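Write out this protein's structure.
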Amino acid sequence: MSDQPGRELIPSGSGGVFRDLALRLRLILRLMGDRRVSPFVKLLPIGSVVYLLLPDLVPGPIDDAAMIWLLAYLFVELSPAEVVAEHMRDLTSVVEGEWREIEEPEKAETQEPE
């Protein structure tokens, strides 16, 4: 699925594991709120949260983490490519700007009325 040309979900070299994880979580939240994503596909992240909260047969955190990763990966892969690309563009875009300092006006001394 990931061998589709031109579909890089998270740009490489974007700044570390935690930044990539935060970006992936924001992408999933945005896709959950997008009406163009199928409601059946939206069941995958919901299922991963339910799986995390319900006690399971295999003890330990490794299986929980693997299941959440798998369902999150499938959710992004099964979402429409143009919707994913649009949200990634919005999340990773940089707004050009210019830095300048704003001088604070001098505070006038207030005189107490006599």
